């Protein structure tokens, strides 16, 4: 047995076999073949496999995000079946006597260039799709399948590091745990693991060159330990602790339907953080009073192209309808920094955490922002929606946002589209926003404090840099005073202040937050009931 230590990102236990997740940047090698017919047969087989994979993805997306969101996989199936594309690959194999991988890659490039050169913006964007399907066929040819998404059974995913876009695309039903060699506990990948209720250890320094695929392992996410080839004794201990964990969870289930109220009668709104429609099951199971943060950017990260207004509407509507009238706070697109999306074609930045991210992108690229706002307002007819804007630093920005919101609402009214009421709020996650929170409070209906970024920007510590984890102290008095100031300014102007950053679930601070007057806490679904228990045991007034 080998013991590897890292840092706990989500404290739970898993036992199973390892599947190593490798990045996909293997260059395609050109080989000469003496058997073109054999290569063509390989291409046809890989193409059939790709068609099956796309059908499965279509069915999965249909269940999770509805027809509009699933259509992209139908479109990919049609492109894959296109006669010209197939003829081009087969012709190249036959005449140039090259291997199938090379022919598929070259044909993919060729068609992508044709699309990219078109005037029509929609057709231009299809270049990414044709590349995507070619890569899928190549992966099948190499024999690695769609390694990033299609694990054959439930596995412990071991990776060097996982970008948020890679994490969201993993098939969650087949992931027992995440273990990464690098990565910080404050990164969005760690946050995703917590939201999805998946045991996770980061920063283990594990060497991926060793033969890990298929190896038995045990993940102790509580202590941040990975056991390779665990002994019977370790397996027994894990089993016992997992049963204890399960019993604790079952006891907590008794708190479903109970109020989140302190001993002296203060009622707290206890909401859930989600990243996708599929997280709703956990929200309902754990009886959250609503959704305090839907990180809508994960809808964009899951995709190869901008989600359309209808695709977004389908996702937002599903969430609102499933929450049956409970509050749902959807945050507008917050990409940039560690959440990078290829199809946005953002310029490379020296310092992305302080660069063009979140609301800054939306105000620069109004078309993208307006598409999302249109989808949100159309969805507002189906439930209790609030819209929240990230990374605010000034009153001027909020004025600009409110103007765009009015523009969108007027357009929808003119089109005769039904809308509900939506409260508007902002995230307080920069020191600048805290310092002008008295002014900001006059403009919006609520504040939600993003302690992850607020800590990063207050302490000048990159939250994604694991080497700095020991300096990333969210309990720092400067951070706590910022929270206090925000809550006071919110209340002075009669609006609510909640916390939706990771600190909201830190039970060492629950009493402090309640004493400060925090109205709402929003946490990963699996933390809801434990926090409810804690709040019900607190007396704020001594
Ligand atoms: C935060 O910064 O605390 C927050 C909730 O937003 P994110 O973690 O997505 O940046
Ligand atoms: Mg943030």
UniProtKB/TrEMBL annotation:
<dbReference type="InterPro" id="IPR050499">
    <property type="entry name" value="PEP-utilizing_PTS_enzyme"/>
</dbReference>
<keyword id="KW-0762">Sugar transport</keyword>
<dbReference type="InterPro" id="IPR006318">
    <property type="entry name" value="PTS_EI-like"/>
</dbReference>
<dbReference type="InterPro" id="IPR036618">
    <property type="entry name" value="PtsI_HPr-bd_sf"/>
</dbReference>
<keyword id="KW-0670">Pyruvate</keyword>
<feature type="binding site">
    <location>
        <position position="463"/>
    </location>
    <ligand>
        <name>phosphoenolpyruvate</name>
    </ligand>
</feature>
<keyword id="KW-0418">Kinase</keyword>
<feature type="domain" description="Phosphotransferase system enzyme I N-terminal">
    <location>
        <begin position="5"/>
        <end position="126"/>
    </location>
</feature>
<feature type="domain" description="PEP-utilising enzyme mobile">
    <location>
        <begin position="153"/>
        <end position="224"/>
    </location>
</feature>
<keyword id="KW-0963">Cytoplasm</keyword>
<feature type="coiled-coil region">
    <location>
        <begin position="232"/>
        <end position="261"/>
    </location>
</feature>
<dbReference type="InterPro" id="IPR015813">
    <property type="entry name" value="Pyrv/PenolPyrv_kinase-like_dom"/>
</dbReference>
<comment type="similarity">
    <text>Belongs to the PEP-utilizing enzyme family.</text>
</comment>
<feature type="binding site">
    <location>
        <position position="453"/>
    </location>
    <ligand>
        <name>Mg(2+)</name>
    </ligand>
</feature>
<dbReference type="InterPro" id="IPR023151">
    <property type="entry name" value="PEP_util_CS"/>
</dbReference>
<dbReference type="Pfam" id="PF00391">
    <property type="entry name" value="PEP-utilizers"/>
</dbReference>
<dbReference type="GO" id="GO:0046872">
    <property type="term" value="F:metal ion binding"/>
</dbReference>
<dbReference type="GO" id="GO:0009401">
    <property type="term" value="P:phosphoenolpyruvate-dependent sugar phosphotransferase system"/>
</dbReference>
<dbReference type="InterPro" id="IPR036637">
    <property type="entry name" value="Phosphohistidine_dom_sf"/>
</dbReference>
<keyword id="KW-0813">Transport</keyword>
<keyword id="KW-0460">Magnesium</keyword>
<dbReference type="InterPro" id="IPR008731">
    <property type="entry name" value="PTS_EIN"/>
</dbReference>
<dbReference type="Pfam" id="PF05524">
    <property type="entry name" value="PEP-utilisers_N"/>
</dbReference>
<dbReference type="GO" id="GO:0016301">
    <property type="term" value="F:kinase activity"/>
</dbReference>
<feature type="binding site">
    <location>
        <position position="331"/>
    </location>
    <ligand>
        <name>phosphoenolpyruvate</name>
    </ligand>
</feature>
<feature type="binding site">
    <location>
        <position position="429"/>
    </location>
    <ligand>
        <name>Mg(2+)</name>
    </ligand>
</feature>
<dbReference type="InterPro" id="IPR008279">
    <property type="entry name" value="PEP-util_enz_mobile_dom"/>
</dbReference>
<keyword id="KW-0479">Metal-binding</keyword>
<keyword id="KW-0598">Phosphotransferase system</keyword>
<dbReference type="InterPro" id="IPR040442">
    <property type="entry name" value="Pyrv_kinase-like_dom_sf"/>
</dbReference>
<comment type="function">
    <text>General (non sugar-specific) component of the phosphoenolpyruvate-dependent sugar phosphotransferase system (sugar PTS). This major carbohydrate active-transport system catalyzes the phosphorylation of incoming sugar substrates concomitantly with their translocation across the cell membrane. Enzyme I transfers the phosphoryl group from phosphoenolpyruvate (PEP) to the phosphoryl carrier protein (HPr).</text>
</comment>
<keyword id="KW-0175">Coiled coil</keyword>
<dbReference type="InterPro" id="IPR024692">
    <property type="entry name" value="PTS_EI"/>
</dbReference>
<feature type="binding site">
    <location>
        <position position="295"/>
    </location>
    <ligand>
        <name>phosphoenolpyruvate</name>
    </ligand>
</feature>
<feature type="domain" description="PEP-utilising enzyme C-terminal">
    <location>
        <begin position="254"/>
        <end position="539"/>
    </location>
</feature>
<keyword id="KW-0808">Transferase</keyword>
<dbReference type="Pfam" id="PF02896">
    <property type="entry name" value="PEP-utilizers_C"/>
</dbReference>
<dbReference type="GO" id="GO:0008965">
    <property type="term" value="F:phosphoenolpyruvate-protein phosphotransferase activity"/>
</dbReference>
<protein>
    <recommendedName>
        <fullName>Phosphoenolpyruvate-protein phosphotransferase</fullName>
        <ecNumber>2.7.3.9</ecNumber>
    </recommendedName>
</protein>
<feature type="active site" description="Proton donor">
    <location>
        <position position="500"/>
    </location>
</feature>
<feature type="active site" description="Tele-phosphohistidine intermediate">
    <location>
        <position position="188"/>
    </location>
</feature>
<feature type="binding site">
    <location>
        <begin position="452"/>
        <end position="453"/>
    </location>
    <ligand>
        <name>phosphoenolpyruvate</name>
    </ligand>
</feature>
